[in-house]
Amino acid sequence: MKAPVAEQRSLLDLQAADTRLAQLGHKAKTLPQQKRLDELAAQMSEVSHRHAAVRGELEDAELEISRVESDVEVVAARLKRDRDRLQLSSSAKDIQGLGHEITSLEKRRSDLEDIELAVMERLDDINARLAVVTEELGIFTAECDELVVSRDASLAEIDHERAGVQVSRDLIAAGVSDELLALYNRQRERYGIGAALLTRGISMGSNVKLHESDLAKIRQAAPDDVVLDPDSSYILVRTEESGL
After folding, report:
1. Do 17 and 62 fall into the same domain?
2. Fewest C-beta atoms under 10 Å: which of 21, 98, 106, 191?
């Protein structure tokens, strides 16, 4: 393939733009804020599960205390009813029966009050543990919020620079023939580099000095011949510094 020397040399600017775009893409994917956010996501997932578990304990305990309080109210109401009946009754048999029932109800109320006290103590423990895990979750959430703001600001800067580089890249590419540009793009997709400078016999794409036999073939090429690196197959751009 042949191409004007100026077009071949413009490939170096095109490669520089593509290299910078690749660097910016890598930078966007490897931001330290995102790395920390990924770490926090795992930590927050574990804390969130613990928070949900403690919340479940709390809901169960609150439901239990509600049932116990309801049972206490029922027992208290029956006690009041039986005591009222006891005061009005003149039957020895009724009085004896009511006495037994009152004794049983008082025992039941005492047992329920003991259960209520135990559940309330458990509630205190659960609430204390919930406060700790809620605070832990809040700390992680606050850090995440700060990191997201910082990450988004960094991404905005990267996107701004990337947009500028892309405009420059498009302008450079517009000055390159379709055939040469297609070859450059194809080689870049295959080898990661589309074009590199040959300076003092060294290919700057690999920083390796070419063999004399390869250099001899390149010397024989016309200035407008498109030359490929003998090892990596990207386009070698020749200038006065090529040492030919």
Report:
1. no
2. 106
pLDDT tens by residue, 70-97:
999 999 999 988 787 878 777 777 777 7
Contact 42, 212 (CB under 8 A): no
Last residue of a domain, one of 153, 168, 191: 153
**In this structure, what DSSP letter does residue 242 have?**
G
Whether 78 and 130 share a structural domain: yes
What's the whole-model pTM score?
0.72
Task: Indicate whether 116 and 188 sit together in one domain.
Answer: no
pLDDT digit string, tens, across residues 121-138: 999 999 999 999 999 999
Six-digit token string for 166: 């892309």
**Judgement on whether residues 136 and 46 belong to the same structural domain of the protein:** yes
pLDDT reported for residue 231: 87
Q: What count of Cα atoms within 13 Å lies in the side-chain half-sphere of residue 31?
A: 20
Nearest to 65 by CA among 146, 119, 143: 119
Tokens standing for 121? 């103590």
